[in-house]
């Protein structure tokens, strides 16, 4: 039998897991910085932090299901991971466009993460297609 799992997808999932740790810590540090330096309205600090922590909670099963689905060549976990990626993209776009203060570092971090999500999604769709056929 031939091996259908995707090595590029596996590598990207691994790199994305490491990058997300950096992304989370850097974004959290920037939110703390912005709350100290700028006149950050208290009503908006909690939602921005909530989005960041929700994104972190969503990232764990997204990466786990991606790893599992790719390695076991199962389309269901990979499809669920793809669905969770859509949720992560929405939260990332919120942090890119609609958080209270957006610094150039926010734009850079979110652009890299969105690019990784896009590439990863394309590889997931390709892997699912290979698993189904």
TrEMBL record:
The keyword Membrane applies. Its main location: other. Keywords: Cell projection, Membrane, Transmembrane, Transmembrane helix. GO terms for cellular component: ciliary transition zone; membrane. InterPro entries: Uncharacterised_TM-17. GO terms for biological process: non-motile cilium assembly. It is found in: Cell projection, Cilium; Membrane. The keyword Nuclease does not apply. The chain crosses the membrane at residues 12-33, 45-65, 77-96. It comes from the Eukaryota. It holds the Pfam family Transmemb_17. It is a multi-pass membrane protein. This is TMM80 protein. It comes from Rhipidura dahli. The lineage of its organism: Eukaryota, Metazoa, Chordata, Craniata, Vertebrata. The gene is Tmem80.
């Amino acid at each position: 039998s031939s091996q259908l799992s995707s090595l590029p997808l596996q590598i990207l999932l691994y790199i994305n897991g490491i990058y997300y740790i950096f992304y989370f810590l850097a974004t959290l540090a920037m939110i703390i910085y912005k709350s100290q330096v700028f006149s950050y309205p208290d009503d908006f600090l909690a939602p921005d932090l909530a989005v960041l922590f929700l994104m972190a909670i969503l990232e764990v099963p997204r990466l786990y299901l991606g790893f599992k689905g790719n390695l076991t060549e199962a389309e269901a976990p990979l499809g669920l991971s793809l669905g969770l990626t859509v949720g992560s993209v929405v939260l990332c776009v919120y942090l890119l466009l609609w958080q209270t203060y957006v610094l150039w570092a926010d734009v850079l971090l979110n652009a890299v993460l969105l690019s990784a999500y896009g590439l990863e999604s394309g590889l997931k769709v390709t892997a699912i297609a290979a698993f189904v056929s």
